[in-house]
Target: Hydrolase
Amino acid sequence: MSFSLVIFDCDGVLVDSEILSAEVEAEALSALGVEVTAHDVMQRFLGLTQEALEERFEQDFGVRLPPDHAETTRRMLRAAYVARLEPIPGVRDVLQSLPMPYCVASNSPPAKLGLGLSITNLFELVYPNIFSAQLVAQGKPAPDLFLHAAKVLGAEPADTVVVEDSVVGIKAAKAAGMTAIGFVGGLHHMPPSEKTLVAAGADHIAHTMDEVKALILA
Model:
């Protein structure tokens, strides 16, 4: 199938940030007396908006997060990004070789998106087509963000393919009527990630960016 638009998630698809985010959240929660590992955070909360993440933390662990929790984790995450963040291997080559328009659509806030893309030297390849969930009424797993991006860029949902690493992202893509590629090439992925994404509705699974490119251009 020939696609007219490719939508990439950012965290875990363009930049290998999911493990860093999970480690930061686990450390911040541990400081509040909550026993949780980075693996637990990834398994239970991967892909959620910051607001949904904090709401789920409070519900699942029975704690009241301090008012400065988001700012504390942002500060910790920035330090982790500067020290350790890397792009997904091969992603620059894929972006530079795609013959059709592409964009980024993420549940992350704009500041986090800009930081991650800048540190990994990908910002200039995707700007200005960067869409945050703050632009729409509901973030993923609702389809709003993907539909908004497609509308802005003049693409029909049926002609759009989404590359996602999370269940909420795959569900959003399918709810939008788009083809969904489940990407499992980030450091945070481990079995049974593939089965989980397929169960969420992924049409294809890719382990590397070369596989992503082949699926897009097939």
